Amino acid sequence: MKYSPTPSPPHPAIRWLALASWVLIALAYLTFFVLDLRLDYTQTLVPCSGAECNYIAVSQAEFDALENMGLSPRFYALMLNGGTVLGVTACWLLALAILWRQGNTRIGWIVSIVLAIIPINMIADADNVAAFYPDLQLPVTILSSVGTIILFGFLYLFPNGRFYPRWAFIPLILSVIVLEVFDLLFSGDLLSPAWVDAILAPMVMVIVFFPGVLQLFRYRRHSTPTERQQTKWLLLGILLLIAGFPVWFTFFGGVVEFTPGQPRLFASLGGWLTNMLFVVALPVTMAIAISRYRLWEIDLVVRRTLQYGLLTGLLALIYFSGVITLQAGFRTLTGQTNSPIITVLSTLAIAALFNPLRRRVQDFIDRRFYRKKYNAELALANFAAIARDEVELDKLTTALLGVVQETMQPESVSLWIKDFDTKTPRR
Question: pTM of the prediction?
Answer without folding.
Answer: 0.65
